[in-house]
Amino acid sequence: MPGRRGRGVVESKNEHKKIAILGSTGSIGTQTLEVVRENKDIEVTALAAGSNIALLEKQIREFRPRLAAVWDEEKAKELRLSVRDQDVRIVSGMDGLLEAAAQPDSQMLVTAIVGMIGIRPTIEAIRAGKDIALANKETLVTAGHIIMPLAKEYGVSILPVDSEHCAIFQCLQGERGHNKPAKILLTASGGPFRGRKREELRDIQVEDALRHPNWSMGKKITIDSATMANKGLEVMEAKWLFQVDLDRIQVVVQPQSIIHSMVEYEDGAVIAQLGTPDMKLPIQYALYYPKRRPLPGERLDFWKLSEITFEKPDMETFQALALAYEAMKAAGSMPTVFNAANEKAVSLFLDRRIGYLDIPEIIAQCMAAHKVIPSPTVEQILSVEQEVYERIESRR
Ligand code: NAD
Ligand code: MG
User: Fold this and answer.
1) What atom in ligand 1 is closest to the CA of residue 162?
2) What is residue 72's three-state secondary structure?
3) Mutation probe of ligand 1 site: the residue of 109, 217, 233 with most atoms within 8 A of C-beta
4) At 49, is the secondary structure helix, strand, or coil?
5) Lowest CB count within 10 Å: 134, 205, 271, 280, which one?
6) Which residues fall within 8 angstroms of residue 247, CB to CB, at 6 or more apart?
7) d(CA 386, CA 380)
């Protein structure tokens, strides 16, 4: 359970003043820096990004980290030149990411990187004793069986940044140690294609799928929200974070994105967390947990709010969600196959090399061809990822 430490929940230690951020130029990364900017009492010790060195340079000049990692070696060289007047060391590649993750000065790592590339840095940070503010759900989906016991062993907290999981975490406050949830009610907006049937989705273009009704996010997760693969990944994320069996996690479509998720207890009481859709709330909650801080922004106006409605997810149209459940049931390395196939298929779709309905089709084919490894090591997870990528490339 997030916040539950190997040696019990240590509430007072969670004054996180020094943080490192992986994926600082992305949607979650830039919003994390906005929270830092507004609060003024957090020091940023390390930043890491893929290739957007123009933005990274601005961030270095404003937040003055001692270390910055750029995935791309050529871009790292360029950045080294352009920030030579700054007291910052520029590193690159996986070694650079690992160094940024385990930076000795920081107390917390914000994992705002996208994809399975986050697994190794997250493990490195846990081993270095950092608490994790976790946005990078792909890491938990594929390596939850390694990450959660490791966090327990090293006495670090995993604090969820994903809005639904942060909502669940908030609904569990005050109950911890007394009551276990009977059921987790994970809400979903249903994405831009809610209500449509499969045949109506055949000609969907990248622009259509990138138009999320309520949230503005990175491209990969926006496509995942359109296919509902994101909700599948979130069910797996919830299973690991809250140690709840799959049959106790129910997806509820709530199109207005006002209820961020709910927890039902044994006596039938349901506790929900509500608010306007703003990722800065879960980010700030993770950074300052267990304290709440003022956060400017729109408030819910219940006099104006006309309705909050609920639906059952349509698993036939949103085949990716059904496949995610299958992957979860098969367990072991199957969630890695689901995730890797989805990552690759989404990137091909964004490059306009496959159609929208090919995404679940590719995932299904990769899953059908896979023989499950029961409790895969990190090396096995990464080699399954590679095999899946190669399989998809070779079918083209
Ligand atoms: P994004 O695409 O906007 O940003 C990704 C960041 O990762 C960028 O800074 C990019 O430079 C960096 N990155 C990518 N590959 C890298 C590499 N090889 N080395 C170093 N840096 C690399 O993505 P996002 O929407 O911010 O999502 C980040 C994570 O948070 C994802 O796992 C996503 O599922 C999760 N999440 C996002 C939101 C949201 O609102 N955006 C909400 C919930 C969860
Ligand atoms: Mg979410």
Assistant:
1) 43
2) coil
3) 217
4) strand
5) 205
6) none
7) 10
Residue of minimum CA distance from atom 2 in ligand 1: 218
Count CB-CB contacts under 10 A for residue 394: 7
CA dihedral (64, 69, 57, 78) positive or negative? positive
Both tokens assigned to 280: 């800065």
pLDDT band at 12 (very low <50, low <70, confident <90, very high): very low
113 CA closest ligand 1 atom index: 7
CA of 74 to the centre of ligand 2 (A): 33
Cα separation, 369 vs 184, whole angstroms: 32
Closest residue by Cα to atom 23, ligand 1, is 218
Per-residue confidence band for 13, with pLDDT thresholds at 50, 70 and 90: low
Atom of ligand 1 nearest to the CA of 138: 32
User: Residue 11's pLDDT band (boundaries 50, 70, 90)?
Assistant: very low
What are the pLDDT digits (tens) for 208-266? 999 988 888 999 999 999 999 999 999 999 999 999 999 999 999 999 999 999 999 99
Å from CA of 164 to ligand 2 middle: 5
Q: Please state, as a whole number, how many other Cβ atoms lie within 10 Å of the Cβ of residue 289.
A: 23
DSSP string, 195-246: T--GGGGTT--HHHHT--SS----HHHHHHHHHTHHHHHHHHHHHHHHT--G
Number of helices followed by number of strands (H, E) in the chain: 15, 11
Q: Whose CA is nearest to atom 30 of ligand 1?
A: 135
Global pTM? 0.95
Tell me what pLDDT residue 285 has. 98
Specify the ligand 1 atom closest to the Cα of 24. 9
Q: Quote the CA–CA distance of 10 and 5 in Å, as a whole number.
A: 7
Q: Residue 189 in contact with residue 214, Cβ under 8 Å?
A: yes
Encoding tokens for residue 353? 């090399």
Rounded Cα distance, 43 and 36, in Å = 8
Q: Are 108 and 134 in contact (CB under 8 A)?
A: no
119 lines ligand 1 (CB under 6 A): no
Q: What pLDDT sits at residue 3? A: 45
Q: How close is the Cα of 167 to the center of ligand 2, in Å?
A: 10
Establish whether residue 97 lines the binding site of ligand 1, counting it when its CB lies within 6 angstroms of any ligand atom: yes
Residue 144 CA to its chain's centroid (Å)? 13
